[in-house]
Prior knowledge:
It contains eight helices and no strands. By secondary structure, it is mainly α. It has two domains: 11-71; 89-178, Alpha Horseshoe (Serine Threonine Protein Phosphatase 5, Tetratricopeptide repeat), CATH 1.25.40. Helix 2 runs antiparallel to helix 3 (49-87), helix 3 crosses helix 4 and helix 6 (133-145) crosses helix 7.
Amino acid sequence: MSTPDPINHPQHYLTHRSGVECITITEHLNFCLGNAVKYIWRADEKGDAINDLAKAVWYLEREITRRKALADIENARLIGVIADCLEKDLVTKSASSPDVTGSVLAYAQAGDANRQYQMGRMCYYGDGMPQDSEQAVEWWQKAAEQGNAEAQKALSFLVTKSASSPDLTGTTLEYAQAGDAPRRK
């Protein structure tokens, strides 16, 4: 534990029974979460616990608002991608899931690893589109590079299945050659 110093190591941040100084934890958090933890940490040490806890709540509410806004922005972006795909008629309905239209492709194009894996399966088996093993590999490579274990297994299967598998390169080849694909990150 550090020696108290009003500037670098204030006493109210050094008294936790763990012996850990507050900054050791909060420096790994964003501003709002770090401040919330700071106010909770020192609540019983500065003489006004209610005020410190109210400040912590204020920072938590601000962080919740920020995250909701980010989610709204991301959802609006994805809705735009989906609408664009539907407008351009980029996909047909899936034979196995007739209610699936452009959403799988749109989310895959937007970078969703699970949907990229799903697009790979649809291409590989010709579900809702012409069968295209090379296109399947491209989707699976994108998903595998993001840590999607199912896509990594699919690529591994392709390599072991046939010597005439589509060319695999880089990180994807490493996943495929490993045989036992690494788990999702």
